[in-house]
Amino acid sequence: MAPRGGTPDSFAAAAGPAVAQAPPATAPAAPPRPRSAEPSPRDRQQQRLAAAAAAASEQLAARMAATLKAPRSSVEFESTWRALKGDAALQAQYLSLLPAAQLPTIFKDSLTAPVLLAITRAALAAVVAPPNTAAAGGGAEGASTPAGLAPAAAAELVAGLTRVPRFPMMAMCIGSRDKTELKALWDAAAAALDGAPAERLLAARGAFRV
C-alpha cells in the first residue's frame, strides 16, 4: 500500500504523462499582393509600332477612298479591284460607284468568271451586312453611302450583272464550291430584303442557277 505522503514528483508519476497543450491558433497569412503587370520596354515598343501601323493603314484607306471613281472599262475595274484586295469595306464602297445600268457598257465582252464571282459575292455580303447609313451621314434608304454598298443598290448591281453580254457563259464557269457559297449568301440576302429589291435579287438568282 502506497504511503499517503509523498513528493510532488511521485504524484505526477502516479498520474501518468502530462498531455501536451496545443499552441494557440493563429490567423492564416494573407496572400502576397500580385505585382502590377507593367509591360516591358519591348512590349511598349511593339504596342507603339502596332498603333502606328493601324493609324497609317487607316490614313491610306481614307486616301484611297477619296480617290475612288467609277471605272470606264473592265481594265480599269480590275486594276482598282486588285488594289483593294483584302479590304472588304473599300471594295463595297467601290461597287457603290458602279451604275448597274452601265455594267454592259463597262464590261462589254471582257467579263471573266472570277470578276463575276467577286462582284456577286461582295454585293450579296453587303445585303447581309449593310453599311451603317446613320453613321455615314444619314443617307436615304436604298442609296449608296460613303460607308459602302446599300442593300437595294447591291440587289440592283447583281441584277445588272445578268445583262452583261458574257454573263451566261461566265455564270456556267463558276465552280460548284463557289456556287455553294453563293447559295448560302443568297439565302441570307433574301431573308434580309423585301419588296422590289427582293424581287430583283430573286430573278437574278434564277439567272445564276444557284
From TrEMBL:
Protein name from the UniProt record:
RNA-polymerase II-associated protein 3-like C-terminal domain-containing protein
Q: Where is the composition biased (Pro residues)?
A: 25-34
Which superkingdom, per the lineage? Eukaryota
Q: Which organism is it from?
A: Monoraphidium neglectum
**Source organism phylogeny:** Eukaryota, Viridiplantae, Chlorophyta, core chlorophytes, Chlorophyceae
Disordered: region residues? 1-51
Q: Residue limits of the RNA-polymerase II-associated protein 3-like C-terminal domain?
A: 70-179
Q: Which PANTHER family match?
A: OS05G0129900 PROTEIN
Question: Where is there biased composition of kind Low complexity?
Answer: 8-24
